[in-house]
Amino acid sequence: MAVALRIDGSGDPADLRSLNSWLSGRNELRGRVSRRSRAPEPGTMGSVTDVLVVALGPSGVAAALASVLISWIKQRTGEVTLRATCACGRETTIEAKQVPNPTPEAIADLAATLHHCPRAAE
């Protein structure tokens, strides 16, 4: 299963590069991250959007991803929205203003959402 990560709000392509670097720097995620372009939704105006795609697999990868995502968004200075979409279409949104001090339960909840996609077995 793969999770697509998109950054909204900043408009700065350096944010996606920064997130890619954070993800690739974690041993559990190394080699599981790729950058892809995604066309705008049908019927909407806009340009091609770059997304990061993270391949999930053995247990622990979703928890590592959740931990890195929360750590990365905590250090952002502006209002940034991170959207994680799994293969089944379920989307989780994290906003920088909502994650000042995430609890272990919040990290576990994000990891569970990312890991329990109905299409995870595909």
List its traits.
five-stranded antiparallel sheet; Alpha-Beta Plaits; alpha+beta; 122 residues
Strand order of the main beta sheet, please?
A: 2-3-1-4-5
- Count the strands? 5
In total, the number of domains comes to 1
Overall geometric form:
globular
Q: How many strands, which pairing sense, and closed or not: the largest β-sheet?
A: 5 strands, antiparallel
Could you spell the SSE succession in H and E letters?
A: EHEEHEEH
CATH architecture: 2-Layer Sandwich
The amount of beta strand, in percent, is: 25-35%
Give the % helix: 25-40%
Catalogue the unreliable spans: none
Radius of gyration: 14 Å
Which structural class is indicated by helix and strand composition? alpha+beta
CATH topology (level 3) name: Alpha-Beta Plaits
Distance between the termini: 7 Å
Question: How would you sum up this structure, described in words?
Answer:
The protein has 122 residues and is of the alpha+beta class. The chain has one domain (2-115): Alpha-Beta Plaits, CATH 3.30.70. The chain contains 3 helices and 5 strands, in the order E-H-E-E-H-E-E-H. The chain has helices at residues 13-24, 61-74, 104-115; strands at residues 2-8, 33-38, 49-55, 81-86, 91-95. Strands 2-3-1-4-5 form a 5-stranded antiparallel β-sheet, covered by helices on one side. A hairpin with a 4-residue loop joins strand 4 and strand 5 (91-95). Helix 2 (61-74) crosses helix 3. The protein is globular, with a radius of gyration of 14 Å. 22% of the residues are buried. The model has no long low-confidence stretch (mean pLDDT 76).
